[in-house]
Amino acid sequence: MGKIYCVMGKSSSGKDSIYSRIMQQGNPALLRIVPYTTRPRREGETHVQQVESAGKVIELRAYHTVYGIWKYFTVDDGRIDLSAHSYLYIVTLEGYQKIQRYFGSSQVVPIYIEVEDGERLLRAIARERQQKTPQYEEMCRRFLADAADFSEEKLTEAGITRRFINNDMEGTIREITEYIRQDMSGTKKQG
To answer: Is 136 left (phi over 0), alpha (psi -120 to 50) or beta?
Structure first.
């Protein structure tokens, strides 16, 4: 039976880079879950509004950004087959909890990535400076929202006990990859 490994963490914690590298390595073999969105699309995302009205939404997150309301959502579109595959997916803490309720707690595994807040802020600024049109106001909104969205209280409520500290990208990727391999084989160590 497959599982969904949910990669989570505050903005600029390295989620996207870690996710991409694990998917590129292909070991363990994990499939992608394609997210849907109503904001301007990024590569690999699908922009579809009809699925919400059709009742196929597993989880939905709406963000009041400086550019308006952006929605991200996970859809039961027949592409997630836990009887045959495991998946790696980037999601929020709230999204993780909804996916866990939908598929069952034994089928959904949290991968929480953590970075010290000062380091995250420096990373966020450096990343934003590289953009053609930096969006510092939106970056600040996300940074402040993360304090509430990933509060210790909410992490405890969600049952997040295992944290991957991303001070060294290569080491963190190896640690997460090994954690997933052990979980898939049923030999995962607690910690």
So the answer is: alpha
Model confidence over 57-80: pLDDT tens digits? 888 877 777 777 877 788 888 889
pTM recorded for the entire structure: 0.86
What are the beta bridge partners of residue 64? 69
- What is the DSSP annotation of the chain? ---EEEEEESTTSSHHHHHHHHHHH-SS--EE-PPEESSSPPTT-B--SHHHHTT-EEEEEEEEETTEEEEEEEE-SS---TTT--EEEE--HHHHHHHHHHH-GGGEEEEEEE--HHHHHHHHHHHHHTSSS--HHHHHHHHHHHHHHT-HHHHHHTT---EEE-SSHHHHHHHHHHHHHHHHHT-PPP-
Amino acid (1-letter code) at residue 128: E
pLDDT in tens, 147-160: 999 999 999 999 99
